[in-house]
Amino acid sequence: MEQKTSVKVLSAKQITIQNPLCEDWMENPLSYSQDYVRAVDPDFKQFISAGDARRMGKLLKRALATSLSALQEGGIENPDAIITGTGFGSIENTELFLDALVREGEQLLKPTQFMQSTHNTASSLIGIHTKCHGYNSTYSQKGFSFDSALYDAWMQFRIGRIKSALVGGHDEMSPVFSGFVRKAGHVKEGEICSEAAVSVLLAEDGDNAYCTLEGVRLLDAPSEGALSKVLADMTADGIDAVMTGMSGNGENDSWYGFLETMLPGVPLLRYKPLFGVNFSSSATGFYAAACCLRKGCVPSVLSVSGQPVECGKGILVVNVVEGRHYSFSILKPSCGR
Amino acid sequence: MTGRSVLITGCGIVSAIGQDCGQVLDSLLRVRTGVGPLKYLKTEHTEFPVGEVKLSDEEMERLMGIAPDTPTTRTALMGMIALHEALGNAGLKADDLKECGFVNGTTVGGMDKSEQYYLDFIENDSRNAYISTHDCGSCSEMIADRFGRFKMITTISTACSSAANAIEMAADMIRLGEADIVVAGGTECITKFHLNGFNSLMILDHEQCRPFDAGRAGLNLGEGAAYVVLEEAGHAAARGAKALVRLSGYGNACDAFHQTASSPDGEGAYLAMTKALKEAGLKPGDIDYVNAHGTGTPNNDESESHAMMRLFGDDLPPVSSTKGMTGHTTSASGAIETVICILALRNGFLPVNYGFCNPMENGIVPNMDLHKGCKLRHVLCNSFGFGGNDSSLVISAVE
Known about the structure:
The structure holds 2 protein chains of 2 kinds. The two termini of chain A are 30 Å apart. In chain A, α2 crosses α5. A 10-stranded mixed beta sheet of chain A has the order 3-2-4-5-1-6-10-9-7-8, with helices on both faces. The longest helix of chain A is centred in the N-terminal third of the chain and has 17 residues. Chain A has 2 domains: 197 residues, Thiolase/Chalcone synthase (Peroxisomal Thiolase, Chain A, domain 1, 3-Layer(aba) Sandwich), CATH 3.40.47.10; 123 residues, 3-Layer(aba) Sandwich (Peroxisomal Thiolase, Chain A, domain 1), CATH 3.40.47.10. In chain A, a hairpin with a 3-residue loop joins β9 and β10. Chain A is of the alpha/beta class. In chain B, β9 and β10 form a beta hairpin. In chain B, α9 crosses α10. The longest helix of chain B has 17 residues. Chain B starts with 5 loop residues before the first strand and ends with a strand. By secondary structure, chain B is α/β, with parallel strands linked by helices. A 10-stranded mixed beta sheet of chain B has the order 3-2-4-5-1-6-10-9-7-8, sandwiched between helices. The interface between A and B is large, with 68 and 69 residues.
């Protein structure tokens, strides 16, 4: 079997708490003092008809907008695979259905809310909209969902099943569930509870790629030996920086302590202060790293130490969820640029 | 199929027709349904027959040695029971798991507890522990952690094809050398949430469901869990593990038609089956039995019939839906029916399409005879989900 060692990141698009569908955040990031912030929505009219938009929850509208935008920039109409990660799915419709069920009983419930409550609605909506009959899947593993989707896409390329993949990380957050995730500790003190929709277009070939993806690894509760082996494998050709999920919260940041020991002197970056925290946060980290490689520079706002950071050799994106799920993806500058 | 060969070296199941492989085999051979009046779920909709696992949450906790006050969910408890059997069947101990992956399929997750404690989540802090058991991922962690620490864990949520897609992802990992053993499958309990959801879509039958029957009027919800241990052939041989069957191919396709309805021509289903056969290097004529998705809804059974007739032409192999016995176990169904296929292959019989009486117009006529003693070489197992997430597995006998 052909073992692909690299895949191009043709485009990456976001709707988050930063200005949507653009990279304004690299120069003029929005900052917030609230601890719960909803995404800044673009005008959806260019992507979705008003009639369709009325029937869709926020997550679906954002997923479709970032997907279509990524496909357009990448110059691919019909990707071979559509793979989504989402921790909660369309939680607003789920909540509406659940709330009515609990408060009003089991007689007058609405099918539209239920239909959007399954986690796979984003992947299937994108499939329907782009008429793509290819590989279609959805992962739901808390803050590890996008990472799982990316890993699957990586395998689909390696096994030779696909030549292009649209990979998404999509989570919305209702006011009620923003309270729940605080209680459950999914979002911690000092972190902004936020929303994110990120779509990344991967392909074997293509011009003007942001960067190349050269590996994805997932581990649960790895030993120190396993961690150092993965780091050695993935950084063998050298990297400039590690994009971490550090947020400023002590408990969360302690999960990244192994990096300072095992990759001494390698600058650490963080995106959560800019994009907030939700189950699709790691997708914003991947997106931010891809944008840095595309521009060939790292905005100082991402640097943990505040010192300038280079990115000519590549960035390792590391996500640690609840101190047990570890994901690693290695991004390198694209030669064609 | 490219890459390394994928064997199944263990399986475990809990469902309305039995709480382990032996009981399920017995029910299949006696053609006994597990669908009946509601007993365990507290709902206003007692008019719908369901395929419940005949155990209370408390009984499951006792079986699994879970302390009574531990926050857990019915979906997770059923998952533990099935995983316990699968690991034992494959001869895997806690210490072996650190080299194994775990890919779980679920959609409902911890909704059974969320619908019970939702107002507490809002109004007080008495049930906060159950917020953490709401999502799909936490369900997989609870199940896995009961037995040790796996090398990696993830969760697939593609509605009713979740478990089938979990098995496919796990097999890809083995073929690519990402792991030598990956345990995969799915679990789902019946909740008020999706009983009402399916009711709002008007796809629940008020009587025993009748897949592929002219008078079919919807599905009966079921529940349960099943897992298979997927293992690289050389690894299995080296540790002396016995192969039950071989996973020789699989396909995933998107119907790309509608969020909750299948296309009339069953395009997604046809593509999933075609891809599975192609990966297996087989022709339609090599398939000896199809375990259909066959939910009993007018839409699915018509669409799936079209897809099968398109693929097999005049040489349709025996087809049955086993959902008349198990109920539609939604996210778990792909794994539950994979285990049913394994039992059929290993014991030489064809599962019966319980509930069928009258052929539908332009539909397939399902298998109604056990054909005990028959020799099956390759069987196809279909799982289709909302959103047109269609998947099909080819399971083959081993010499």
